[in-house]
Design a protein that fits this description.
Helices cover 24% and strands 29% of the residues. The protein is an alpha+beta fold. It has a 5-stranded antiparallel sheet, covered by helices on one side. The model has no long low-confidence stretch (mean pLDDT 83). The chain is globular, with a radius of gyration of 12 Å.
Length: 90
């Protein structure tokens, strides 16, 4: 896995600011200037955390059990794939 650059973090932040307030994904957090993992958050009735990691060519989303849930070349595509995770919106 590789680290997220400042440009990656800015792109993810812009993406999150563009989604509606009631979207299934509620936010994200990262520690450090170039983190190797970002945590995505989902809430409705229950909070869930999803680790996001980056390879040289893809973003990789893991579910809260540590299993790979989605892969995509861009954060935008990953957001759409993540929305399709079974049970996420319930």
């Amino acid at each position: 896995m590789t680290t997220f650059s400042a440009a990656d973090l800015d792109a993810i932040d812009r993406l999150w600011r563009s989604i509606p307030a009631d979207h299934v994904w509620t936010g994200w957090s990262a520690t450090g200037e170039e983190p190797n993992e970002i945590t995505l958050y989902r809430t409705r009735a229950h909070w869930r955390r999803f680790p996001l990691r980056k390879s040289n060519s893809e973003f990789i989303l893991f579910d809260d059990q540590g299993s790979e849930a989605a892969r995509a070349a861009t954060a935008d595509k990953l957001l759409k794939l993540g929305e399709a995770i079974p049970g996420l919106a319930s």
